UniProtKB/TrEMBL annotation:
<dbReference type="InterPro" id="IPR004099">
    <property type="entry name" value="Pyr_nucl-diS_OxRdtase_dimer"/>
</dbReference>
<feature type="binding site">
    <location>
        <begin position="194"/>
        <end position="201"/>
    </location>
    <ligand>
        <name>NAD(+)</name>
    </ligand>
</feature>
<keyword id="KW-0520">NAD</keyword>
<keyword id="KW-0676">Redox-active center</keyword>
<feature type="binding site">
    <location>
        <position position="217"/>
    </location>
    <ligand>
        <name>NAD(+)</name>
    </ligand>
</feature>
<keyword id="KW-1015">Disulfide bond</keyword>
<dbReference type="InterPro" id="IPR006258">
    <property type="entry name" value="Lipoamide_DH"/>
</dbReference>
<feature type="disulfide bond" description="Redox-active">
    <location>
        <begin position="51"/>
        <end position="56"/>
    </location>
</feature>
<dbReference type="Pfam" id="PF02852">
    <property type="entry name" value="Pyr_redox_dim"/>
</dbReference>
<comment type="similarity">
    <text>Belongs to the class-I pyridine nucleotide-disulfide oxidoreductase family.</text>
</comment>
<keyword id="KW-0560">Oxidoreductase</keyword>
<feature type="binding site">
    <location>
        <position position="326"/>
    </location>
    <ligand>
        <name>FAD</name>
    </ligand>
</feature>
<dbReference type="InterPro" id="IPR036188">
    <property type="entry name" value="FAD/NAD-bd_sf"/>
</dbReference>
<feature type="domain" description="Pyridine nucleotide-disulphide oxidoreductase dimerisation">
    <location>
        <begin position="360"/>
        <end position="469"/>
    </location>
</feature>
<keyword id="KW-0274">FAD</keyword>
<keyword id="KW-0963">Cytoplasm</keyword>
<feature type="binding site">
    <location>
        <begin position="157"/>
        <end position="159"/>
    </location>
    <ligand>
        <name>FAD</name>
    </ligand>
</feature>
Length: 479
């Protein structure tokens, strides 16, 4: 007879492992299925999904290493520090990244044991529903299959890099995000197709280490999802650093030889052009991992883009089956998946958690960092909303000047009548941390005046948030 659980989670990425832990904390017998080895030398499943293995965590490790290298080469001198003969060992940098990944993924195994979550090693696929239970087949690395059952199943299988049909990704010369994390040497010329989060972050890593980076973007506008003022400032700063952008391009033939990759493309004005690169990164978004789940066996539906259809509570139309994270419509963000995992576990036991998706923050970990929450000025104006806004530069902040990180600004947008904060947009050092104050404020429906009247530590970067709030009412104190 098969094992039966209260909850089975398919996928141990940020959404899945957090959902499993929260379900177990609530007293539910819980299992989590994971089969992806992510190049584990023994072929064993690695926990943490794309985020911990080939996404968020390893890319941030490389960004930090490359940032230190750039500081040593270009900014230490400003502080009176003379350094000669600075060099970078890419293999050692990648090894450090791998060690961090190993520590993080191993930590999830500890959390499973601590919370009594049963790890089922293998890939999950639906079999059928019967007697109020959903049956799931688990197939391990050797092809052995077993059946487990649960009252509730949470699909948390995440996403994979989207590839262009005309470009073969071998993760040697033509890479997606996984291959771009493991270059053994710094390419002299690097091409990046896609000016989104991943393209900008990985392009920044290798540009700092000496690569000549050209970014090819199909959209006519740079960072179209960001507030216009932020996008304009970001492009200016990235170009100053050395990144080259071609916007509004149409990618044509891509030819790969043993030593180079040639990309033929049409520019925004219709001219034919080509780029010659040592390596090419294809970063054109991600697609949900809904293949091989055998969803049709239980009647779970997907939309035309492959995302699983759910209601506002992350419940599918099939009783007892839920879906969270990248497999459902909405932002493909690890922290969004985590919140959904917690919420679903709590809904299963009858609690009533709420997620305000307007308060989910976005972050791009370039230098300077970019972060925002809420609506952009363009979106609010298009919706006919009466707004007021304030902006304050880090250049006028003593802490930022002392750190040598005075680029960028904080922009705050509020309702013209009620003063409720509708959006906060940051480009600057530490934006990923500073945005948290704005998220809390918006969750509590705060007004810009609320932040303006809260005492902020001096000197600190957070003072710029306060000054931006003051600027909404045209009463900044330090400019």
């Amino acid at each position: 007879m098969s094992q039966t659980f209260d909850v089975i989670v398919i996928g141990a990425g940020p959404g899945g492992y957090i959902a499993a832990i929260r379900a177990a904390q609530l007293g539910l017998s819980t299992a989590c299925i994971e089969g992806n080895p992510y190049d584990d030398p023994k072929g064993e499943p690695r926990l943490g999904g794309t985020c911990l293995n080939v996404g968020c965590i390893p890319s941030k490790a490389l960004l930090h290493s490359s940032h230190l290298f750039e500081d040593a080469n270009h900014h230490f001198e400003d502080n009176g520090i003379s350094v000669k003969g600075v060099s970078m060992d890419p293999a050692k940098m990648v090894a450090r990244k791998n060690a961090i990944v190993d520590k993080m993924t191993g930590g999830i195994q500890y959390l499973f044991k601590k919370n009594k979550v049963i790890l089922l090693k293998g890939y999950g696929a639906f079999v059928k529903q019967e007697g109020g239970l959903t049956q799931v087949q688990v197939t391990d690395k050797d092809g052995n299959a077993s059946i487990v059952s649960a009252k509730n199943v949470i699909i948390a299988t995440g996403s994979k890099a989207r590839h262009l049909p005309s470009i073969a990704v071998d993760n040697v010369q033509v890479c997606d995000n996984e291959g771009a994390l493991n270059f053994s040497t710094v390419p002299k010329k690097l091409g990046v197709i896609g000016a989104g989060v991943i393209g900008l972050e990985l392009g920044s890593v290798w540009r700092r280490l000496g690569a000549e980076v050209t970014v090819l973007e199909a959209m006519p506008a740079f960072l179209g999802a960001a507030d216009g003022a932020i996008a304009k400032e970001a492009k200016k700063l990235f170009e100053k650093q050395g990144l080259k952008f071609q916007l509004g391009v149409s990618i044509g033939d891509v030819k790969v030889s043993k030593k180079s990759v040639t990309v033929n493309y049409t520019t925004a004005d219709g001219a034919e052009a080509k780029g010659e690169f040592d390596k090419l990164i294809v970063s054109v978004g991600r697609t949900p991992n809904t293949d091989n789940l055998n969803l049709e066996a239980v009647g779970v539906k997907t939309n035309e883009r492959g995302f699983i259809e759910v209601n506002h509570d992350c419940a599918t139309a099939v009783a007892g089956i839920w879906a969270i994270g990248d497999v459902i419509p909405g932002p493909m963000l690890a922290h969004k998946a985590e919140d959904e995992g917690v919420a679903v576990a709590e809904r299963i036991v009858g609690q009533k958690p709420h997620i305000d998706y307007n308060c989910v923050p976005w972050v791009i970990y370039t230098s300077p960092e970019i972060a925002w929450v809420g609506q952009t000025e363009e979106a609010l104006k298009a919706a006919g909303r009466e707004i007021k806004s304030g902006q304050f530069p880090f250049m006028a902040n003593g802490r930022a000047l002392g750190m040598g990180s005075a680029e960028g600004f904080v922009k705050m947008i509020a309702d013209a009548k009620t003063d409720e904060i509708l959006g906060v947009h940051i480009i600057g050092a530490g934006a990923s941390d500073l945005i948290a104050e704005a998220v809390v404020a918006m969750e509590f429906k705060a007004a810009s005046e609320d932040i303006a009247r809260v005492c902020h530590p001096h000197p600190s970067m957070s003072e710029v948030m306060r000054e931006a709030a003051l600027a909404v009412d045209k009463r900044t104190l330090n400019m």
